[in-house]
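Retro notes
What went well: the complex prediction finally ran end to end.
Inputs used:
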Amino acid sequence: MRDDAEAVQAASALLAEEAAAVDERRWDDWLALYLPDCEYWTPCWKDDDELCADPRSELSHVYYRGRAGLEDRVWRIRSGKSPASRPMPRTLHTIANVRVRALGDGRLEVASNWTNHVFSLRTRDTEVFFGRYEHTLAPGDGGLRIARKKIVLLNDLIPTYIDVYQL
Amino acid sequence: MRAESGIEPVHDFSRYLDDRPQDGVFRVHRALYTDPELFELELRYVWERTWVFLGLATQVRDPHDYLTGWIGRQPVLVMRDAGGRIGAFLNSCRHRGARLCASESGNRKYLVCPYHGWAYDSWGRNVALKDHQHGCYAPAFDAEDHDLVPLPRFESYKGLLFGCLDAEVEPLESHLGEARFFVDLVMDQGANGMEFVPGRMKYMYRGNWKLQAENNLDNYHLTSTHPSFMEVVKRRREGESANEQVRSPDFAQRLSRESGMFTFRNGIAAIWVRNPAPQDRPLHRGIEAVRRRVGELRAEWMLNLRNLHVYPSVQLADSTSLIIRTIRPLAVDRTEIGIHCLAPVGEDAESREMRIRQHEDFFGASGLANPDDSVTYEDCQIGSPPGVLDWHQGYDRGMTATLAGANDLAREFGISPVTSLRGPFKIQNETVFHAGHREWLRLMSEGASRERRR
């Protein structure tokens, strides 16, 4: 993928497909976008100015080495046994300002901004979560797949709870 | 109820608690969770009259380190000065009352008010009053004290910092009283003290603060609120989930274990369960050294499962991974929660990561269990508006198993609780909640009658 415009287009398409899969609750499609040995990471803030940098010695909201952690979450959402996701809120992710850097061997480093409007059917309240994404995309079965995703949540005084569909 | 002065108190709060042990009855009025007027009185009579947790001494390790917090309605500042003393003050400039520190923590030798530039050192002394010499102040102004206002009481126990806005409160150590046994089981886990693992976990729920106060001591909700967490853990253990990164406790094993509770003075209470799998705890790896330091009994009980509530503001919970949970009441139907991962200073890297992964798996706004608690609090708030029904039910669960005073286990611990209970997990008693509600009544009644006398 030598052409920058082509890389941006491919990356944007994958990010849009990921957002759509979550918003439409197509969980199998969503999981299939991740490589089995992916890293999924939402660090906590260390203080008002600094993000946690080392998930082995500092807290994360979510940290998984491997897709199995995401599969646990999808199982829990689908189980109907978690009051937090029963009923499921409606979500709408919007991703913008996509910037791409080619890493060689077909891998792409992608930075973007995100907002997520969440309508809670439980409380009838609307909340907005927002932040930055960093994706590392790599060639996989059927095209580009997510090797790493870091989610920076900027409004981290959280109303009630967050799960992968609020991020 | 008549105050000592003979003047009727503002409220007769006893009508909100139907507490008749001789009849086997304990009922709590729904207004405790929903009445905005009661909430305003609680801030004054409960939160601003008793000890409130502010942080750990290890959070202000170095000179000029500070942290901020709240006691009831008041913004509070805790600082270590140049000489190493820790002081606690109202986070409020003496001039127009602007908050001096907006951050939760930091390091500043001088605090300069952003409004008119009055400056304070880290012991709270006013060191500069901008353009003072040109101010044409009358002598009466210069005779006033312009330093930050220290909290009427500020004390620590084993590195836990507490403040109180009422100078007449009993000393912290005697306030904690017999419950210190359970505090020690937490704070003595590290040979060199305890610290928070870096990383902020804060969230708000739309419900009254007492819902969290109770839930920490509530074994009854486990199998109905958290079945998804329990099954995820089971799936991992049975290989149906490929997630090998975290080994969280299997709650199902606990349902057949012995459990119990103690209540103490001042609304303090604890629950416990014998741990079926002590090897799954991060403390287990170094337990031999702990045993040599604290003895057989305490080491065993550090591995057992215990949740303590130091009413009203802080919970030391050690039933999944070790946390300190802070409660801040924002409104009658709005509460802010902080979840801190507590760990021994100098813990080995492998145990530390095990601790962190267990913490994230269960706790915080993003855990696999904590969110299920938070949304049920919100359902309680939505489902019990004032007006029709008066009383919550079920606080009598465990009544016939609850002893006044010490049971045999308390005697083994060498402590004298107010009430004790010991038995199969499935009792899942609610008598442990009585302590907090009785303390609420005591503080509310005393606060009202004292205010009336002034």
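What we learned: The helical segments of chain A are 4-23, 27-32, 68-79.
What to try next: split runs per interface for comparison.
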